[in-house]
Design a protein that fits this description.
CATH architecture: Beta Barrel
Largest sheet: 8 strands, antiparallel, barrel
Radius of gyration: 16 Å
């Protein structure tokens, strides 16, 4: 694949992921995620592990990682995501993302806005190293599903 010669706004990938584990730190994720309980004043911390498929014109394979999620008392969720992409040809690409999750009131849906950095030492995917990826998407907490689309920023 070599050097990236695309344009800002170009589709890089789409991923469909599912929760594989939620680590709780004193608050029930089910109660918070379902809206039955509000996050405490100090916020609620969860490690949300996920995995699934990544597809697109530039990257295809699987994603596995964790969001070190902090849900603030006002519901806003700063994102701290670390993941690994394994391409269909067996190469590894590191994914690091920050951003924000914004809950849709009265629903289990969180709107995601991710700023993503991809890094690798594999020459055929080295084009990912200098680009920034803008990745909007959603999380459905009731289903444990994450859908995100990444574009060259």
């Amino acid at each position: 694949m070599g050097e990236y010669k695309g344009n800002p706004g170009e589709l890089i990938y789409h991923y469909d992921l599912h929760f594989t584990q939620v680590v709780e730190y004193g608050c029930s994720s089910n109660a918070i995620f379902s809206g039955q309980a509000q996050p405490p004043a100090a916020g609620a911390r969860f490690d949300v592990h996920f995995e699934g498929k990544i597809t697109g014109p530039k990257i295809n394979g699987t994603v596995k990682g964790v969001d070190y999620l902090h849900i603030r008392a006002d519901g806003r969720c700063p994102l701290d995501i670390k993941a690994e992409i394994t391409t269909d040809d067996g190469k590894k690409i590191a994914l690091a993302a920050s951003g924000v999750g914004i809950p849709e009131p009265g629903t289990p849906i969180i709107q995601l806005r991710e700023n993503v950095t991809l890094t690798t030492n594999h020459p055929e995917y080295a084009w990912v190293n200098p680009i920034q990826v803008w990745a909007p998407g959603t999380v459905d907490l009731s289903k444990g599903e994450i859908r995100v689309t990444g574009y060259a920023a």
